[in-house]
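Hey, weird one. I pasted the Putative cobalamin binding protein sequence into the form twice and got a warning about non-standard characters only the second time. First submission, copied straight from the form history:
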Amino acid sequence: MRSLNPTRPGPEAFRAYDSAVARDDAGAATALVERLLDDGVDAVSILTDVIAAAQRDNGTRWQRGEWTVAREHAATAIAVSATKAVTRYVRRTPPTRGRVLVACAEREWHALPAMIIDCALRTDGWDSILMGAATSPVRLNQYLQDYGPEAVAVSCSVLGSLAATRRFIEASTAAGVPIVVGGPAFGADDVRAKALGATGWAADADGAVTAIARLPAVVPPATPLPAAAAAEQGDLEHDHRRIVAALRSSWSVTSGSAPPPDIADDVFNQLLHAISAVLLTGDSRPVPETAAWIADLMITRGRTIAVVHELADRAAAALSDHPLARDIVETHFADGL
């Protein structure tokens, strides 16, 4: 079991890890983590205060155009290696509590957060089983039947995976198994988690440990989502490629003779996923948050805010067959600018 008064890593540990990542030195990063563990530093705190904290900074560097996608991916590979070192350390101790399935939702390829949650739960004595990235609902159902877990924990980093997370919630609660969700796609509170029918929500690895420990033994099936919004979300998902093509051909940033920026598809996909998230959860915040994110991307790449306002107009036009989605853009997009 984890200590009630864990020794946390100091800022010098974060700086040393960040320096190793900047040098693309996986060996140094892993050696640092192993040294911290040998010195008695809390494993969960290493995950949250060093590895995950550095990953957030790396994502910001990409967003600001300071890092390429390739460099960010290299940093993620180092983080995975460092997290595996922590996992090896904590798994030396046999589990003392029940079984928990830890997974990423279907279409969710960011496996690192789930790895961190899996490791954190193991430090608290849980017999955690990491199912990995992009787990399908069919596979989750099979694991629910085969392993009979006490709980399920799902990591969701991107808004586009919220629909798949809802299917996880339906599968888990239909079996009576409580489910905790978390990750950037859920935001800074439990509003979206509750709307999707999750039993609990966690902001980070520490929160996941606490949430899992407080779950009820059995839960009822999740209640249905509002029918009209859920139906339009399904239609929006079906028409995703067509709408992206319409945006690409109509937005001045991508419709001219010059090559479009390498982040154009990220912009289109993130906007549509944000709208989808609002339809699923009733929480309007993903759209203005995405608008602010798009504005930051454009401005750091030499564009003006005018192209972001233009994108909102183009999106509203492209969503003419989806009235709820169009209204979401027209009502909430500008709030982020």
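That's the output from the first submission. The warning seems to come from a hidden character in my clipboard, not from the data itself. Residues 179 and 199 are 5 Å apart (CA to CA).
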